[in-house]
């Protein structure tokens, strides 16, 4: 059995070592599709959509209307922190591919912590625009 739910947030970032336009400060209206696969419980549910929403929205909240900044991008980190802008500093380049892997790990840990042992596969799809995405799965 497979279920899925979409989540949305706004976030800025930049790719400091990119040779093209993405080197500049810019943002996206992100969409994340969370797809879970496994065996439904005795109530016929893999997970209650309300619970899934609570889990994922809590994870997304710090990222919404923030700037995702790679920790080695000292120029941006120093500027954002000195001016008290909302930012999330991460140990990876903020590509869609890396963001997908990062969210996959966060969601996986939270589901394991809550003992959702019936969920065997998690697939995260991060859309930066309506027609491009990166996907990571367990």
Features:
about 140 residues, alpha/beta, 6-stranded mixed sheet, about 35% strand, elongated
Low-confidence stretches: none
Distance between the termini: 16 Å
Structural class: alpha/beta
Number of helices: 3
Describe the structure.
The chain is of the alpha/beta class. The chain has helices at 49-60, 74-82, 96-113, and strands spanning 2-13, 26-38, 66-70, 87-90, 119-129, 132-137. Strand 3, helix 2 (74-82) and strand 4 form a beta-alpha-beta unit. The mean pLDDT is 96.
List the helices and strands and how they pair.
Layout: E1 2-13, E2 26-38, H1 49-60, E3 66-70, H2 74-82, E4 87-90, H3 96-113, E5 119-129, E6 132-137
Parallel strand pairs: 1-3, 3-4
Antiparallel strand pairs: 1-2, 2-5, 5-6
Short description:
With 138 residues, the chain is an alpha/beta fold. The chain has helices at residues 49-60, 74-82, 96-113; strands at residues 2-13, 26-38, 66-70, 87-90, 119-129, 132-137.
């Amino acid at each position: 059995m497979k279920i899925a739910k979409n989540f949305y947030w706004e976030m800025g970032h930049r790719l400091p070592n990119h040779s093209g336009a993405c080197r500049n400060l810019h943002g996206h209206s992100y969409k994340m599709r969370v797809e879970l696969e496994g065996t439904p419980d005795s109530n016929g549910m893999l997970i209650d959509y309300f619970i899934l929403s609570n889990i994922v929205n809590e994870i997304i909240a710090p990222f919404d209307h923030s700037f995702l900044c790679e920790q080695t991008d000292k120029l941006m980190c120093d500027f954002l922190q000195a001016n008290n802008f909302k930012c999330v500093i991460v140990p990876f380049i903020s590509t869609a591919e890396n963001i997908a892997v990062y969210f996959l790990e966060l969601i996986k840990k939270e589901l394991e912590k809550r003992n959702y042992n019936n969920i065997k596969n998690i697939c995260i799809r991060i859309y930066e625009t309506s027609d491009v995405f990166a996907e990571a799965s367990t």
